[in-house]
Write a structure and sequence with these properties.
This protein starts with a strand and ends with a strand. It has helices at 14-26, 46-58, 69-74, 83-87, 101-109, 125-133, 157-169, 203-211, 228-238, 257-260, 280-287; strands at residues 3-7, 31-35, 62-67, 90-95, 115-119, 141-144, 173-178, 218-221, 241-248, 264-265, 274-276, 303-307, 318-321, 331-337, 353-357. It has 2 domains: 3-239, Aldolase class I (TIM Barrel, Alpha-Beta Barrel), CATH 3.20.20; 245-357, Cyclophilin. By secondary structure, it is α/β, with parallel strands linked by helices. The protein has an 8-stranded parallel beta barrel with strand order 1-2-3-4-5-6-7-8, surrounded by 4 helices. A 7-stranded mixed β-sheet has the order 10-15-9-14-12-13-11. α1 runs parallel beside α2 and α8 runs parallel beside α9. It is elongated, with a radius of gyration of 24 Å. The protein is built from 11 helices and 15 strands. α1 (14-26) links the parallel β1 (3-7) and β2. The longest helix has 13 residues, at 14-26. It is 28% helix and 21% strand.
Length: 360
C-alpha cells in the first residue's frame, strides 16, 4: 500500500499555485512536492512563495522541496543553515543543482531534522553504501524517481521496480510520479510521469502499477490539480483497491445496492474467465435474495453480472467478466465497466480488492 501526494509549482505562477494548493487541501492531500528551481521560472514575489509553503504546512502537509544553491539564497538559507526552510514548514529536501558531492554528504549527515530525497533512477548500491560509510543513515533517505516532461524519455516499469528492490534492501522508502491529465504542466504539457507507459494512462492504473508488490511508499501526481475524480481513483489504487467505473443497464434493485456499494475481493483461487466476488452469494443467502431472471444478455469483457435463481445454489454469485462470454439464461447482466477502465481488469488478481463506482 502506498500513500498519495500532489505537486504544485509556485515559481510558475502564484495564482495557479494558490488554486492548486487549495484543491490539494480540499481533497485531503497530506504529501506535497514542489520544485523551487525550475529553469523556466521567473519569480517576482518570493514572499508569496513563502506564504504558500507555510500555508501547506499549516494544513498538515509534509512538504518536500527540490532545491538548488540559488533557490536556497532566495530563502536566506545556506548549505550550513537550512533553518529558514524549516521555518516555512519544509521537512523534506531534494538537493539538486549546485551542490558538490562533499556538500551533499555534509548536509545530509547534519540534517537538523530534515529528511532527504535522492534520485532513485541514478543512485546505485555503491552510492548508498558510500553515504552509509560517511555516516548518513540509509533509512533517513527517501529514494524518489524523477518525472520526465519530454515524451519517450520515461523509464520502464521493469527498471523502476528493480531500483526499488535495491533500496528496500537498505530499508529505504521510495516514491514515484504519475501524470495528471486535467492541467498538464508547462512548458511541454505532455504529462509528468516516471514510467513512460503511464504518460497517457489512467491515474488509477498508473498508481496501482507503481504501488504493486509493495515497492512504493508514496505516489505523487507530477502535474498539478488532478481533479477530485482522478485523485480519488488514484488514492484507492495506490492503497490496493482497484476502482471500476460502471454504467448500469438500469437503476439497481434496492435489495442489491448495499452489495454493490461494498469493497469486494477476488478469491485466492482466481478464475480464468471472470473476476468473482467473495461476497455475492453470502450476501444473497443471508438476506434471502433470489434474483429473478432479467437482462440475460451477452457478456462482453467488463460486464458486471449476478446469477439468478436458475443457477440454483449459485444464485447471487457476483462477477465481472474478463473475456467475452455468451448470454446465459442463468446470469443477469447488471452493467458494464466503462471502456476506459477495462484495462484495470488485468490488475485484479488473487486477493485484490475492487470497488464499483456508479454514476457514469
Amino acid at each position: 500500500m502506498a500513500e498519495l501526494g500532489q505537486s504544485f509549482y509556485p515559481t510558475l505562477g502564484i495564482a495557479d499555485a494558490e488554486r492548486h494548493l487549495e484543491e490539494a487541501i480540499r481533497v485531503g492531500c497530506k504529501h506535497l512536492f514542489t520544485s523551487l528551481h525550475l529553469p523556466e521560472a521567473r519569480v517576482d514575489d518570493w514572499q508569496m512563495v513563502r506564504r504558500l509553503l507555510a500555508r501547506a504546512a499549516r494544513a498538515g502537509m509534509t512538504v518536500a522541496a527540490d532545491i538548488s544553491r540559488e533557490s536556497l539564497d532566495k530563502f536566506g538559507a545556506s548549505p550550513d543553515d537550512l533553518s529558514p526552510l524549516a521555518g516555512l514548514g519544509v521537512r523534506v529536501l531534494r538537493l539538486d543543482h549546485g551542490f558538490t558531492a562533499e556538500e551533499t554528504v555534509r548536509i545530509m549527515r547534519g540534517n537538523g531534522g530534515f529528511a532527504f530525497q535522492i534520485n532513485a533512477g541514478t543512485t546505485t548500491q555503491e552510492d548508498v553504501e558510500h553515504w552509509a560509510a560517511c555516516g548518513v543513515a540509509p533509512e533517513k533517505l527517501i529514494a524518489v524517481h524523477n518525472f520526465y516532461p519530454r515524451p519517450e524519455t520515461g523509464m520502464s516499469l521493469r527498471f523502476y521496480r528493480r531500483q526499488n528492490r535495491m533500496f528496500r534492501r537498505f530499508g529505504m522508502k521510495t516514491a514515484g510520479f504519475i501524470p495528471a491529465h486535467r492541467e498538464p504542466r508547462a512548458p511541454l504539457f505532455a504529462g509528468l510521469p516516471t514510467v513512460e507507459a503511464h504518460r497517457r494512462a489512467l491515474a488509477a492504473l498508473a498508481a496501482a502499477e507503481l504501488a504493486a508488490e509493495g515497492l512504493t511508499d508514496l505516489v505523487y501526481f507530477g502535474d498539478p490539480a488532478p481533479g477530485e475524480e482522478a485523485w480519488t481513483a488514484a488514492l484507492l489504487a495506490a492503497g490496493g483497491t482497484i476502482p471500476l467505473r460502471v454504467r448500469w443497464l438500469e437503476p439497481l434493485p434496492e435489495e442489491l445496492r448495499p452489495l454493490l456499494a461494498q469493497t469486494h475481493a477476488c478469491p485466492r483461487d482466481e478464475a480464468e474467465r471472470v473476476i468473482r466476488s467473495a461476497k455475492g452469494r453470502l450476501f444473497a443467502r443471508e438476506r434471502g435474495i433470489v434474483p429473478a431472471p432479467r437482462n440475460t444478455l451477452e457478456r462482453p469483457a467488463g460486464t458486471v453480472t449476478i446469477d439468478n435463481g436458475r443457477y440454483l445454489r449459485y444464485a447471487g454469485e457476483l462477477q465481472v467478466t474478463r473475456i467475452d462470454l455468451p448470454a446465459d439464461e442463468r446470469v443477469n447482466v447488471l452493467g458494464r465497466v466503462v471502456p476506459e477502465d477495462r484495462e484495470l481488469l488485468r490488475l485484479i488478481g488473487p486477493g485484490t480488492r475492487f470497488v464499483f463506482v456508479s454514476g457514469c
